[in-house]
Amino acid sequence: MVARRALRLSRLRGQPAWVVLEGDLRRTRTNMAETIFGKIIQGEVPAEKRYEDDEMIAIADIHPAAPLHLLIIPKKPIVSMADAQVEDAALLGRMLLRAAALAREEGVEVSGYRLLFNVNDDGGQTVPHLHLHLLGGRGMKWPPG
Q: What is the third-level CATH fold of 31-136?
């Protein structure tokens, strides 16, 4: 919905589609290819890859919040869960299944792990490219913060 509105407004105003208007608040989002994740996907920036296929990559977080902290990142340019569409449901499901497989491979399946999407600024999202956190290797507290 937001992506379609941004595209429509970009045509009317002659602006890039990543300029998003939300009510009276105008937010400028970076071009997806220019984010750190976009550069990693394109091979322009090195990362410790743990998995890759045609749809996603999984990398080690460079600022881990737990002994195991991986990021599962779709190659499709989705800004956040707030921007995901119905047609993204299968991809999102495969990301969750990949996270479970990685948890098994990393040896935290039995002890437990946390899966987390941060959404937009107040949700703690710092890179405007959807990514799923897989955290494990220690006890997780609730509430998280």
A: HIT family, subunit A (3.30.428)
